Amino acid sequence: MRNIIDMTNDAAARAADPRFGRDGLNIVVATNQESSLANAERVAIAYGRGDPMSLPGMAIAVKDNIATLDMPTTCGSRILSGYVSPYEATAITRLRAQGAVVVAKTNMDEFAMGSSTETSAYGPTHNPVDPARSPGGSSGGSAAAVAAGITEIALGSETGGSVRQPAAFCGVVGVKPTYGRISRFGLVAFGSSLDQIGVFARSVRNAAIATYAMAGGDLNDSTCADVPVPTIPEPVEAYRGRTLDGVTIGIPAEYFPPSLDADVRARCDVAIEVLRGLGARIVDVSLPHTELAIPVYYIIAPAEASSNLARFDGVRYGPRAADVMDLREMYQATRSRGFGTEVKRRILIGTYVLSHGYYDAYYKKAQSVRALITRDFDAVFGSGVDALFTPTTPTPAFKIGAVTDPYEMYMSDIFTVTANLAGIPAISLPIGRVGGLPIGGQIMTRHFDEPRMFHVAAALEAALGGEAHA
Amino acid sequence: MAVTETDIRKIADLARLSLADEEVPAMTAQLNSILAHMDVLTRVDTASVAEAGADAITSAIAVARDVKSGGAPLRGDAVAPFPMDATAPMLAPDSEDGFILVPRLSTHEDM
Amino acid sequence: MTNWSEKYEMVVGLEVHVQLKTRSKMFCGCSADFGAPPNVNTCPVCLALPGALPVINAEAVRLALRAAIALDFTINLKSVFARKNYFYPDLPKGYQISQYDQPIAVRGTLRVRTPGETATHDIAITRLHMEEDAGKSVHDRYPRKTAIDLNRAGVPLIEIVSEPDIRSAAEAGAYLRTLKQILEYAGVSDVSMEEGSLRVDANVSARLHGATELGTKTEVKNVNSFSAVERSLQSEFERQCAMLDRGEVVRQETMIWDASRGTVRPARSKEESHDYRYFPDPDLPPLILDPDYVARLRHTLPEMPQQLRQRFSTEFGLNEAELDAVTAESSLAAYFEGVARAHGDAKAAAKWMMGELAAALNETGTGIRDFPVRAPQLAELLDMVRDGKLSHTAAKGVFATMRSSGKSAPVVAAEMAVTQVGDDSQIEQWIEEVFAELPAETARFRAGEKKLTGVLVGAVMKKSKGRADPKKVNALLSKVAG
Question: Do the beta carbons of residue A169 and residue A127 sit within 8 Å?
Answer without folding.
Answer: yes
